[in-house]
Amino acid sequence: MAAPTGSSRDLPHPQRAEIRLEAVLHALSDPLRLQVVRELAADGDELSCSHFDLPVTKSTTTHHFRVLREAGVIRQIYRGTAKMNGLRRDDLDGLFPGLLDSVLAAAARQAVRLGSR
C-alpha cells in the first residue's frame, strides 16, 4: 500500500497497480458499503462522510469507509475538517472494465425487487 505523503492527515490509498479484484469484491459485498458506493456513483462528485446516513455507530461507519479506501474503491481526502469521499471510477474501470457498472446495475435491480432504495 502506498505510504502517506504530505501532512499527517493524508490517508493511505493503494496505487492503481496494487488494487486487487478480490479486495474490491469483498468491499462491495457488504450492503452498507455498497450503499455508500451507489450514492457516490449517483452523485458523481465527492461527498463528506457526514452526508451518509448509515444505521450504524460512527466507529462502524469509519470501518466501512476504511475497507472501501484500502480496497481502492474510494479515495478519501481531508478538505478542512471534512473527510471527503470520491469513487475511484477511472481506476476501477481501467483495471476491471464493466465491473462497477455491472455491480451498480445489479444493486439497483435488487433494490427495486426488494422495495428498498
TrEMBL record:
Name any one GO molecular function: DNA-binding transcription factor activity
Stored PROSITE patterns: HTH_ARSR_2
Q: Which Gene3D superfamilies match?
A: Winged helix-like DNA-binding domain superfamily/Winged helix DNA-binding domain
Q: Where is the HTH arsR-type domain?
A: 13-107
Q: From what superkingdom does this record's organism come?
A: Bacteria
- InterPro entries in alphabetical order: ArsR-like_HTH, HTH_ArsR_DNA-bd_dom, WH-like_DNA-bd_sf, WH_DNA-bd_sf
Full protein name:
Transcriptional regulator
